[in-house]
Amino acid sequence: QVQLVESGGGLVQAGGSLRLSCAASGRTFSTYAMGWFRQAPGKEREFVSGISRTGGGTYYADSVKGRFTISRDNAKNTAFLQMNSLKPEDTAVYYCAARPGLMTTDPNDYGYWGQGTQVTVSS
User: Fold this and answer.
1) Half-sphere exposure of 118 (CA within 13 A, CB side)
2) How far is CA 63 from the centre of its chain?
3) Average pLDDT, the chain
4) Which residues sit opposite 1 in a β-bridge?
């Protein structure tokens, strides 16, 4: 079992940057693939980025490719999402999620979720 706590959200102007962190409890963090998802008002939760257990594999939604970078530090039980060149359409609540085994893009595959952190990008 793992518990997740996100931090790093906030209000930023378009073109700005934010770095989200996802701190995990427990001693088995390296056995979980991690994903970042987001949900804007009135929209479904969508995949943003994922990273494999070792960090050797990453995947991005087309909408964030080239602007966002996912990473993890297994020694510190933390995953990160560096978000650059932010756009107003990136405004959403961002969630980190964990699942044992392989990384996927389907939120239904993830059994562990953080509480979410709000990201607001002003134009």
Assistant:
1) 5
2) 14
3) 97
4) none
- Render pLDDT for 50-90 as a digit per residue (tens, 0 to 9): 999 999 999 999 999 999 999 999 999 999 999 999 999 99
Tell me which amino acid residue 89 is.
E
**Surface-to-core class of residue 120, CB atoms within 10 Å of its CB (0-12 exposed, 13-18 middle, 19+ buried):** middle
DSSP string, 84-109: -S--GGG-EEEEEEEEESS--S-GGG
The DSSP code for 25 is -
What distance in Å separates the CA atoms of residue 123 and residue 117, rounded to the nearest whole number?
20
Interatomic CA distance for residues 11 and 17, integer angstroms: 10
State the Cα–Cα distance between residues 88 and 86, nearest whole angstrom. Answer: 7
Tens digit of pLDDT for each residue in 10-50?
A: 999 999 999 999 999 977 999 999 999 999 999 999 999 99
Instruction: Show the tokens assigned to 114.
Output: 């953080």
Cα(29)–Cα(18) distance, integer angstroms: 24
